[in-house]
Amino acid sequence: MPGLITMDDLTNDEILQVLNDAERLLPVARGELYLPLLQGKILGNLFFEPSTRTRMSFETAMKRLGGDVVNLGDVNTSSVVKGETLFDTVQMVDGYTDIIAMRHPRQGAAQYAQDAARVPILNGGDGAGHHPTQTMLDLFTIRQAHGRLEGLNVVLAGDLRYGRTVHSLSHALTRFGCTLTFASPELLKMPAEIVSDLRAHGANVVETDDLLGSLPGADVVYMTRIQKERFADEDEYAKVAGAYKLHASNLEHVKEGMIIMHPLPRVDEIHPSVDDTRHARYFEQAFNGVVARMALLCRLLNVDVPANIGGEA
């Protein structure tokens, strides 16, 4: 099977199948049950950008399923600094592994890598482009909380211009008929071409700079960090740094079942006072990266997830 470069590589039915597999794999992800479905398989982690959650959750997912992992490690100590091209690096790792997870600062790099590789590529983020494995864990977290994906009111807030997580997620939510509110400073608005594409696919999209006013009707509030590393001009970053800060005191009039998510790391956009509220789901969301990526690894390696795992746990 080919890899997962964007969410367009999965149909809605396939998304739901992966989420169902992930649900069954929860006891394995928690370490309550050992299920070596991927014994003898090797994952290559190629991370050309810093990562904590994505890299570690891929590694945990593979090892929980009995597989093994080889890491590129620090790019500065790899052959990349000698001038090795991405094509050659991928060709080389392709020979060592059965599947590759890759993060790269250049948009489109994951598709380029897939064109160079014989093994499936899982896109762990390509610049400001796509991050489909994050989207899958986000969808899992939303369905876990609400029991469904269809017809929810979702507020996406913060850095919508450079945030690849919200680019991928907004497309996926549109496919399930969600209403989307994009709350951001003018400088960090969702790119016009993405908004146009979403509306062409039937999305109900509202754009605003008023985050707090959007909270009462929300089922999901998805906060994002203002990404300093994406700004070429530090003065531009200074204009928007700290634009939105969510405190527990802002949550008095929200729906009881509303959840707050964040792809992490956070800086100051969610105050620690929110952590102890019933709405906070971002650390659970980070854990869900393991179970969602377990399900994706199985799918791309053509390994069936047994239907009776939960009964065995």
Strand proportion, as a percent range, falls in 5-15%
Outline the biggest β-sheet: 5 strands, parallel
- From the structure provided, what is the oligomeric state, counting identical versus distinct chains? single chain
CATH architecture label name of the largest domain: 3-Layer(aba) Sandwich
Q: Work out the number of β strands.
A: 9
List the total number of helices.
Answer: 11
CATH fold group of the largest domain:
Rossmann fold
Series of secondary-structure elements, N-terminal to C-terminal: HEHEHEHEHEHEHEHEHEHH
What's the overall average pLDDT, rounded?
89
The 3D shape can be described as: globular
Number of domains: 2
Radius of gyration: 19 Å
Straight-line N-to-C gap:
30 Å
Structural class: alpha/beta
Q: Care to describe what's here?
A:
- The chain is an alpha/beta fold and 313 residues long.
- The protein has two domains: 7-130 and 288-312, Rossmann fold (3-Layer(aba) Sandwich); 132-286, 3-Layer(aba) Sandwich (Rossmann fold).
- It is 37% helix and 14% strand.
- It has eleven helices and nine strands.
- The chain has helices at residues 12-29, 53-64, 86-94, 109-116, 132-146, 164-175, 192-200, 211-214, 234-240, 282-300, 309-312; strands at 42-47, 68-71, 99-104, 121-126, 153-157, 179-183, 204-208, 220-223, 259-261.
- The strands form two sheets. Strands 7-6-5-8-9 form a five-stranded parallel beta sheet, with helices on one face. Strands 2-1-3-4 form a four-stranded parallel beta sheet, with helices on both faces.
- Helix 7 links the parallel strand 6 (179-183) and strand 7.
- It starts with 11 loop residues before the first helix and ends with a helix.
